[in-house]
Design goal:
The complex is a heterodimer of chains A (about 400) and B (about 220). Chain A has twelve helices and eleven strands. Chain A has helices spanning about 1-10, 15-45, 70-85, 130-135, 160-165, 230-245, 255-300, 300-310, 315-340, 340-345, 355-385, 385-394, and strands spanning about 55-60, 90-95, 105-110, 115-125, 135-140, 155-160, 175, 185-190, 205-210, 220-225, 250-255. In chain A, strands 3, 4, 5, 6, 7, 8 and 9 form a seven-stranded mixed β-sheet that branches. In chain A, strand 7 and strand 8 form a beta hairpin. Chain A starts with a helix and ends with a helix. Chain B is an alpha/beta fold. Chain B is about 35% helix and about 25% strand. Chain B has helices at about 45-50, 75-85, 100-110, 115-130, 145-155, 175-190, 200-205; strands at about 1-10, 15-30, 35, 60-65, 65-70, 85-90, 160-165, 195-200, 210-215, 220. Classes of the chains: A alpha+beta (about 400), B alpha/beta (about 220). The interface of A and B includes residues 1, 311, 313, 387 and 392 of A.
């Protein structure tokens, strides 16, 4: 029967080409949507890597009107002491602007073992950064005072960067970079991946460098870990303290949990928009498929009547029509898969092959289901055609 | 071979009830060539459809080969039609998207036959109707007479015991019509196939063993 159906489809290839093109275009759009959804879902399933609850962010203007480095250090150390003296504050840390969930990125790239590694996020942080955000070490240790004077610049990298640089080998003690020793970097620890850009973004590559005494000149973010009882009254007192000490600075206090919500919202909006657009497209395609199949049945009533007369049951007529639609779909999907498979092969958008392959599988399944659903009712109607009536009409 | 007892067929709509067949009783013997005649709308095709199990009577019993067909399921009816009956229609009912050979093979698709067997049987059937040289053609590339011969080949490919022909020469000129009639008579004579033919043509009807006339749904001869 399959051979017969292939012949029938091949002989009607011109009529079928429109339907096949429609299925092909739908498949490619669905593939794009599923790729985005799978990418986001895979990222969502991974642990966040930071504890954002009860962490407040203080944005301030780095220029406090003091020029001398020592005086700047004294100013910020005094500020840190004053903040830490508040009973609601557990820990304080100064950091570069690219704190978690901030729309700020600082990236660089370097060569290691003849391999260029790009898009490495660089974070300048203090020793208490790990405690404020409750980071998990995978290997080695976090910064401490002993890192102030070292031969190489101590760095901590995240697991993703470790895997791309050193594979399964241990990373601690490894040195990379070019030039004089003080320009080279030595890995002292590996931290578990942190999703800095929210739940739906991948962790990417990250390395952390220790803030030194000169860093206060340009650092403009503070994060404080507060007790769970810290409320608006405390926020008011904190603001007063900061405003009192940083007279020339614009101060803004945000909650890291809210920043996470905001950044997630920006990731969700395109996903929702694309899903709505694709829903409309799917409805259009479904109606189109349904219409074409329905039209085919009306046009083929004589053939259906004949098949019933020569020995086909209603069920076999119905399955034949569904099978024809499925074979056409298979042809379209073969062509579509050829295009889709180029994405992992050419490493388009730098996504892992697994994401593309999962999206491909889901898209194929979805299109088959869609076609089956659209073909089912017209097929059922065809089965109900009374042979004597259909043959008489012809 | 075919026994119809008190067959009645009523078509009902919301407002009208039409009696298409009124108490028809008819026996068709094995190997008989029977023709049915009558004016348009007298119920000839309806009667043929009932004999061919394409339509169910409103009343009465249809027995084929001593088997009652009243309570057969859709699957059993389909199987019965496939094994025992061959159909020829006035408008041929060929599938234009399939080549002649594939059209002839169609009834065998609903049986457990291999592709090789199907091809062999279809080629034999086409040889019988003299169309061996047209197997790769599409129906649209054939004349009316040739198309009807393909339809006959399709009807006989499964070697049915009964052929039901609904005005097989209705769309053909007299020469072509005679050719088709010759083939049918040959099938009846040489293979012993029982044939029931609906026709408007008195000359064609006179060539058959027996003639049944219908008028307003009733048998008048």
């Amino acid at each position: 029967m399959y051979r017969h159906l292939f012949k029938l489809i091949w002989n009607k290839r011109k009529q079928n080409s429109l339907l096949m093109s429609e299925i092909l275009v739908s498949f490619l759009v669905i593939f794009a949507v599923f790729t985005l959804l799978v990418y986001n879902y895979q990222n969502y399933r991974k642990p966040m890597g930071v504890d954002y609850e009860n962490v407040w962010v203080i944005n301030y203007d780095g220029d406090i009107g003091i020029k001398d480095n020592d005086s700047i250090n004294i100013f910020y150390e005094t500020l840190r002491r004053n903040i830490k003296s508040m009973p609601e504050v557990k820990e304080v840390v100064f950091s570069s602007n690219n704190i978690p969930f901030a729309p700020v990125t600082m990236q660089n790239g370097f060569d290691y073992n003849n391999k260029h590694i790009s898009h490495v996020n660089s974070y300048t942080v203090e020793d208490s950064y790990k405690d404020v955000l409750n980071l998990k070490m995978a290997e080695g240790r976090w910064f401490n005072k002993t890192d102030a004077v070292t031969r190489y610049q101590p760095v901590i990298i995240n697991r993703s960067l470790k895997e791309v640089m050193f594979g399964r080998e241990g990373a601690v003690g490894k040195v990379y970079g070019e030039g004089a020793d003080h320009n080279k970097k030595q890995v002292i620890g590996v931290v578990e991946d942190i999703k800095f850009k929210g739940d739906y973004a991948e962790a990417g590559y990250a390395h952390f460098v220790r803030a030194d005494t000169a860093s206060f000149r340009w650092l403009s973010r503070m994060m404080i870990k507060v007790t769970s009882g810290a409320d608006a009254t405390f926020e008011g007192r904190l603001y007063k303290l900061l405003a009192g000490q940083m007279k020339n600075s614009n101060i803004e206090i945000e909650h890291l949990a809210n920043k996470r919500k905001n950044i997630n919202y920006f990731a969700l909006v395109p996903m929702i928009v694309l899903s709505i657009v694709s829903c409309f497209l799917i409805i259009n395609v479904a109606l189109g498929l349904f219409g074409v199949l329905w039209y085919n049945i009306s046009r083929r009533r004589g053939e259906i009547g004949l098949r019933r007369a020569i020995g086909a049951t209603g069920k076999s007529v119905s399955s034949q029509l569904v099978m024809e639609a499925m074979i056409l779909t298979t042809f379209s999907l073969i062509i579509g898969t050829f295009f889709a498979i180029q994405f992992p092969l050419l490493n388009v958008f730098n996504l892992s092959a697994g994401i593309y392959l999962t999206a491909l599988g889901l898209s194929v399944l979805f299109i088959y289901l869609l076609v089956m659903v659209c073909a089912f009712y017209p097929g059922k109607q065809a089965a109900a055609i009374y042979p004597a009536v259909a043959l008489h009409e012809e | 071979m075919i026994r119809l007892q008190n067959i009645e067929k009523v078509y009902r709509t919301d407002t009208i009830e039409t009696l298409a067949l009124n108490s028809i009783s008819l026996d068709v013997e094995k190997g008989e060539f029977l023709s049915i005649m009558g004016p348009s709308g007298c119920g000839k095709s309806t009667l043929l459809n009932i004999m061919g199990l394409l339509d169910a009577p409103s009343k009465g019993d249809v027995r084929i080969d001593d088997q009652t067909t009243q309570h057969l399921s859709d699957k059993q009816l389909a199987n019965f039609r496939n094994q025992k009956l061959g159909f020829i229609f006035q408008s041929y009912h060929l599938i234009n998207d399939l080549q002649v050979l594939d059209n002839v093979e169609l009834p065998l698709l609903y049986r457990n036959t291999t592709a090789k067997q199907r091809k062999l049987l279809a080629s034999e059937a086409l040889a019988k109707v003299g169309l061996t040289n047209r197997i790769k053609h599409f129906p649209t590339q054939l004349s009316g007479g040739q198309r009807q011969r393909v339809a006959i080949a399709r009807a006989i490919v499964g070697r049915p015991e009964i052929i039901l022909a609904d005005e097989p020469t209705g769309n053909l000129d007299s020469a072509m019509g005679n050719e088709i009639m010759e083939i049918l008579m040959q099938l009846n004579k040489e293979d012993g196939t029982t044939i029931v033919m609906v026709t408007h043509d008195e000359n064609m009807a006179n060539k058959t063993h027996r003639l049944v006339r219908l008028f307003d749904g009733a048998q008048v001869q």
